Prior knowledge:
Layout: E1 11-15, E2 18-24, E3 31-36, E4 39-45, H1 55-66, E5 75-79, H2 85-93, E6 98-103, H3 106-115, E7 124-128, H4 131-137, E8 143-148, H5 163-172, E9 173-185, H6 190-202, E10 205-210, H7 212-215, E11 221-228, H8 234-242, E12 249-252, H9 253-260
Parallel strand pairs: 5-6, 5-8, 6-7, 8-9
Antiparallel strand pairs: 1-2, 2-3, 3-4, 9-11, 10-11, 10-12
Helix pairs in contact: 1-2, 1-8, 5-6
Amino acid sequence: MNAPDPEPIPVTRAVDHGTAKLMPDVDRRRAWLLTVDGAPQSYVDLDEPAHLEFEYARRLGHVLDCVGADDGPLDVLHLGGGALTLPRYVAVTRPGSRQDVVEADRGLLALVTEHLPLPDGAGIDVHGADARAWLETAPADSVDVLVADVFGGSRVPAHLTTEAYAREADRVLRPGGTYAANLADGAPFAFLRSQLATFSTVFEHVALVAEPAVLRGRRFGNAVLVASQTPLDVTELARRTARDAFPARVEHGAALRRFVGDARPVTDAAAVPSPEPPGGSFSVG
């Protein structure tokens, strides 16, 4: 009789930009939560990579599911790696996809690939590099989707918030490609409104996916910005997000323009990181 697998134990390691922890989920046998300096970064289930635990990850997953008409393979560039949750998701929901993941924290990449290895033949290449520097050297018209989920601790770095950065994202996307970014803000939404204004100067179509409580200013939280030069399938995206355990709303068109108001696009000279979450909103023990 084979001996049972040993119980997984937490892993703590100093990485390039803080202290990372991998903590096993007691309810799912091969699932792990990744935190950096106490801020949740990723959740991944190695046995069920299509399971997206975090609400923002599910919303990014919905965006990915709505891209293309035939559920075929995609070429995807991920800025920000974490535990490689979304690349694993695409690998199983869009077999045959080719994906590049860019993560500035090489120590974090080493931790994740050692303890949460990618399956053979996943079609995922990981690169230790700064997200914007990589983007600026990437070939034009080379990807179908660009997913940005980059946080320095719990803040989006300033150099990934500007009009020049948005233009680089547009350059790298193929015609009809989709940009999706995980952002975080709270009322009065100076950061989020500036990001919408910035991407609206570059992309013809922009939408925002967030919980109503966040949009009403009741709490600080995540919001997913979606942008494309071709019309977005906001109806299907809204249908998918409304079915979640924590339903989200998709804002676009006139309602989104009212939300943006008089916010101005962000220049490289004036860029600042996203705001610090109040009272450790995203921290865990």
